[in-house]
Protein: asparagine synthase (glutamine-hydrolyzing)
Amino acid sequence: MRRLSIIDLGTDWQPLYNEDQSVAVIANGEIYNYVELRESLLGEGHRFKTASDIETIPHLYETHGDDFVEHLRGMFAIALWDSRRQRLVLARDRMGEKPLFLWQDRDRLIFAFEMKTLLCSGQVPFELDPTAVDQFFHYQYVVEPRTPLRGVRKLPAGHLLTVDLAPWSVTERCYWRMEDAPLLEGDPPELIRAELETISEIVIRSDVLVGIALSGGLDSSVLAALAVRKYPGRMHAFSVGYASRPRTDERHDAKALADHLDMPFHEIEIHSSDMTEAFPDIVYHCDDPIADMSAYSYYAISRSAREQGVPVLLQGQGGDELFWGYPWVREALRQSRRKERLNGSWWAAIPDYVRFMRPAPGRVAAIEWALSMAGLRSGWSAYRRDRLTPRERLVFYDLTREFRTTSSCVDDLYAPGFRRSLDDSSPFDLFTFPRPWPSLEVLVTKLISQTYLLENGIAQGDRLSMASSVELRLPLVDYRLVETVIGLRKTYSDSNSPPKAWFREAIRDVIPDWVLSRPKRGFQPPVRAWTRALLERHGELLRDGILVALGILRPEAAARLSEGPHAWNEGLALSYRALVLETWCRRFQSLASESADHASAFDAGLTD
Structure:
């Protein structure tokens, strides 16, 4: 196996071994603290054959057993084979930056770092999971451990799985949870700044040029300024814009900061024709169906970085989720505190199901909280009322027309047989949490991190950058920074402070005041224009397509979706989701079918 080489460019073939080759490792990702680990292991007598960051893993396993993963700081999906014990160990990083897919039956387990690779085994049937499909139409993504395929799942973030061959046994455990971060006391901005300095030292470490996706916003601006201090002359800035949306085009702001930091600046202008041309490839490279219009921006910036010879790209994803940058998250906290006053305690007011969703493309979002209060109605359809008990009726902040349409109309899309195949749970019933939680702030941070941040932002960015052989790094989701913020929130509350108060104070001397004082714009691609262009070019796929053939969509509903807003009025988001899922099904069903045919032919050849 050959991975994208960022460290030790000449000798990074995999698998990599310990000294006697009894432990072998393949991995996807990057171990940021490999230098420190290597020095420690050398001091213990271990010997290395390469300078690869991944070679530290088999030696850590020799020393610490399954606990080796707790010593790693980075983004990774790991497969380790212990030949002496006839034992397989699979592990995934704490925040889920790198995926690991699994399929198993009674005596077999197949794993892969990509869904398409799993299907290439020829052993995994293409069979859609109805609950996952329903989830996708409501959320625009599928939340782990589910995938769109029945029987295929993801190893959850922060988990480790072991397979022993004799006797056959499979064991899975969680080795890290955000909410377990130790309580932390001290000055929040000072502690956050110290962690940011460490991040800029080790997370950006590489033997190649490094770029940054610079939006002009606070998060990417801070990362650029910190990186330039540590690695002067090695940083490049990349920014994307849309000629048709000058009010939301941040290229001017991004270039001003790049010039201030003396960074080479590369800008990419995106047109609707670019998006429609690349759409099938974008869906394929995402591996999971993800219906977010920002996908093309990741794709375009990554391609530009590769063309400029920059194989590592930093991005500010995670800052808004971790530091309360989204106003709808702060409003959700205020709503829950009002419920606390009404019900005595906040965890008594919130039933087991506490739900998040990202219902529409772009920056439109909603958070829903269940109330044990009678009489709260907000115009929900009979479908929604029938599926929720009175105790679970919902109050929403920041309702949008797209979300109302999704909630009230999605059931009308489904063919009767598919509707019957769904279980009794609501598509929003994703999480059940133990009570009491350390704090409401911790609960909200975890929810948004394991839904929208992970399944939409992290997944999309990682896979579309890797499609161009570019490694995307997200310093603001480094687990040590997350633990620092969570530990502080167990001691102090920042939810009533101005947005990103701790973060802003921590980096006040890092960036110019004109960046710090700039209002938040948010990422706003031309969603309506792009969707119309996509439907004009690819909309016919929905008519009598796979989703109709598999009995998921009613033919007349698929026809209306294919025509977009002209026939579907406010259902633009649903049209886009249907087109993404249809395109994904066509590509991945074909891949699974061809691979199964090859596997059958191979087996037949062996038996002849």
